[in-house]
Design brief:
There is one protein chain. Strand 1 (about 65-75) and strand 2 form a beta hairpin. The chain is globular and about 60 Å long. The longest helix has 21 residues, at about 285-305. It has about 425 residues and is α+β, with helices and mostly antiparallel strands. The chain is about 25% helix and about 25% strand.
Length: about 425
């Protein structure tokens, strides 16, 4: 019988006589320089059921670092669990905190499996970097935000509500439970883990992406600076693991029914939506790797960043050559040029789009490119094609200034191109 998840108000911590075999294997394995690979090796080839996930959380609750609590129950009575992992000697409320929400959509399992593997690894590892991280940051992980949907293998909850469209109303037991946990813990960062369909007509759905808070005069400068810095580091580290990534940015006026915008734009906390692309032979383990690496980068940036200088996480050794075009005449400089914009017409939601695209060539020191519209970064990407589809309904009539800039992993600008375009077709009607 599945035991209830422990109540944090009276946590019961016992010495475990029996721990999951996978935890023992993780603890006994030799130290590795690549924590991401260690964690991903714990991801199964097939997803676990709700009952199996609860049983694994119950086992991890017996370890010193992990405390599992129930935030409430779903419409059908399943536990909405949260696992907290940090140094057991630390006061978790005094640490920096990352709230990670996985599987709002019940048929998107990679976030659940990624976070369960990360919890397993962190619960028992004696790795120096992991233990140092857990002395600075507490991870608050909700591995299965929609347990009814997960158990039935469907996107929506048992009341047929898409939880990721409920964050303005907060009408469901699942969203109410998570909102209460947010108010109680006041995390410094929120992550929301999802999956993308294998095929889609939307240009933004063609590859893994992160969506976060962009730059706006009405938002706190510290919030915009934090999301800009972290999104750049996410692009750098995803590139080092050969994981394609696009980053898009939200601004006031965007739909607040979505989780990442509710916490990012409404609560004004740095929030990152992670969308892992499915299909094209991408296994559950490969999709989970994207979420694992993302969580480690976000947590390390929160733990160690101090001031504007970028921080090296050192969770893996970069394969990029250390040579630089600035010091080695044999290294080709990075070059970039903007193409003419392509008017695409309305997308599947009726939003008129114009495609901006750049050509990039040059040295191995290139890490990522940004697209700017009228001086504001609207997209960031670490892989070709270097492009962004602009919502032209938001553009004021007339000429728009478009810029593309290329950066190395330290944030140094290697090259750029700025041009002026009219992004709307001459026969476009605003509001059509």
């Amino acid at each position: 019988m599945l035991l209830p998840v422990g109540d944090e108000r009276e946590p019961v911590k016992r010495t475990a006589t029996t721990i999951l075999a996978i935890l023992i294997v993780a603890a006994m394995a030799p130290a590795s320089a690549d924590i991401v690979a260690d964690v991903v090796s714990l991801v199964p080839h097939g997803s676990h059921s709700y009952a199996e996930t609860m049983a694994a959380l119950q086992e991890m609750h017996l370890t010193e670092r992990v405390t599992c609590v129930s935030l409430g129950t779903s419409h059908e009575g399943r536990t909405i669990a949260m696992a907290r992992v940090c140094d057991p000697a630390a006061d978790p409320r005094a640490l920096k905190k990352v709230l990670i929400i996985a599987r709002q959509h019940g048929n998107e399992p990679s976030g659940t499996e990624a976070m369960m593997a990360l919890l397993r690894h962190l619960s028992t590892t004696d790795g120096a970097r992991e233990t140092a991280l857990l002395r600075r940051v507490a991870l608050l992980v909700i591995p299965m935000a929609n347990p009814d949907g997960a158990d039935h293998g469907r996107r929506r909850n048992a009341r047929n509500v898409d939880l990721n469209r409920d964050w303005a109303a907060i009408s469901q037991p699942e969203t109410r439970a998570i909102e209460s946990a947010f108010v109680d813990w006041r995390p410094d960062v929120v992550m929301d883990l999802h999956e993308l369909p294998a095929s889609s007509s939307r240009s933004s759905y063609q590859e893994n992406f992160v969506e976060t808070v962009g730059t706006a005069a009405t938002l706190p400068a510290s919030l915009c600076a934090a999301t800009g810095r972290v999104s750049a580091q996410l692009s750098v580290w995803m590139g080092r693991y050969d994981i394609p990534l696009n980053v898009y940015y939200d601004t006031p006026g965007d739909d607040l029914r979505l989780c990442h915008r509710h916490f990012g734009l409404y609560h004004q906390v740095p929030t990152y939506l992670f969308e892992s692309k499915t299909g094209r032979g991408r296994s559950l383990r490969a999709r989970a790797a994207y979420h694992v690496l993302g969580a480690l980068v976000v947590a390390n940036q929160l733990a160690y960043h101090d001031g504007p200088a970028p921080v090296t996480m050192q969770y893996a050794t970069s394969t990029r050559p250390e040579t630089s075009a600035a010091t080695d005449p044999g290294v080709a400089p990075t070059r970039v040029s903007l193409d003419e914009p392509v008017h695409m017409g309305p997308d599947d939601k009726g939003i008129p789009r114009t495609l901006l695209r750049a050509e990039v060539s040059g040295s191995d020191e290139f890490s990522y490119a940004t697209m700017e519209l009228n001086g504001v970064v609207v997209a960031l990407t670490n892989q070709a094609p270097y492009e962004y589809a602009v919502d032209t309904s938001r553009c004021t009539p007339g000429t728009q200034q478009v810029a593309v800039r290329c950066y190395d992993s330290s944030g140094r600008c290697l090259a750029g191109d700025t041009r002026s375009f009219i992004l709307q077709p001459t026969d476009a009607v605003m509001g059509e």
